[in-house]
Amino acid sequence: MAWLLEGTADMGNMNDIFDTSRKTLQDVEKRLEMPRREFLQFCATLAATMGLPAGAEAAVAKAVEAAKRPSVIWLHFQECTGCSESLLRAEHPTLEKLILDVISLDYHETLMAAAGHQAEAARKAAMKANKGKYVLVVEGAIPTKANGIYCKIGGQTAIDMVKECAADAAAVIAIGSCASWGGMPSTIPSISGADSSPTGSAGVAEILGKPVMTIPGCPPNPYNFLAAVVHFLTFGKLPELDKLGRPKFAYSRLIHENCERRAHFDAGRFAMEFGDSGHRQGYCLYKLGCKGPETYANCSTLGFGDAGENNWPVGCGHPCIGCTEKGVGFTKPIHQVAKMLNVAPPLQYPRIVEEQGKAASFASAAAVAAVAGAAAGAAVMLTRNLGLSHAAEEAERAKAAGKSADDKAGA
After folding, report:
1. Is residue 145 part of a domain?
2. pTM for this one?
3. Cβ atoms of 184 and 218 closer than 8 Å
């Protein structure tokens, strides 16, 4: 990977990033048609997104300026092209700057001008010229039933094509949930006896039999992909991954932890149905089936399409469906309540507005006083009667005792 590290700066040399007069930075400004200040901010943002230490932005900037653009082979299989559509809406940089100046997108069925035999010839030529150095990106699930005949490109099955392209790739990236673990095409139909999807759709790692970097989502945030590519460009290796192959900088925290509606969850304020008062006031969507509490992704902290941080499902008022999690997205019903992974709501919450007692009216106070007076009078009479009864009993005893004494004396 030494070829990727040419031109990279020492991570601790902060002087490099602030040297805005260097010729390479001026060249980047012309190439990207991006002001130097904006370019440096872009590099710093990428470094922060990936959780890199202070000074890493200098290495990122140097890599984008001087490192050789990596060749990218982008394959399409069972998918809706939503991942590519998401990438089309990236603004920092825009797509044309990305594919012409940051990476060399040598094969992409949707974006390339060539078609048919010319397109396949371009793919094979790029693979041969960049053997062991190109990045393979796979979008879409891969059908496995009937030897993969449900998806063919240029007469070649998706299984054979992905194995051919992965053999000499420097890195393999599965973008989107379909390529990561099967996604929607792998959904098992509700038919008696069904044990797989109609075409036996699977993720890239399952087909290749080895771990690959996955960027799940339907669609994923384009900046997660871009940050991973720039990390590879800068350091010659992929970022740190979790056990599912996802970059930790984007998939290490639950959506629920940083959700903009988390305060409502903690206070017990829930929307109970779409369009009710709580839903209109932005209350928590947990009871409507939001899967944020069991879904790892950075959707709640990194907005989509540069249209504001509320530009994601929960921000728009719809529960998260857990599209980045195998076994959650496209598997659990949307309305099913999520399994809490790190915190469970209590059984009871205080009401949002507690009911307050009302002051007693004059009539009710007089009635209470009358009742209290009657009770007090009854108590006094009871005490008096008890006293009289006791005195009478004592007199009767004395009289009986005297009579008994007189009887003994007469005898």
Report:
1. no
2. 0.69
3. yes
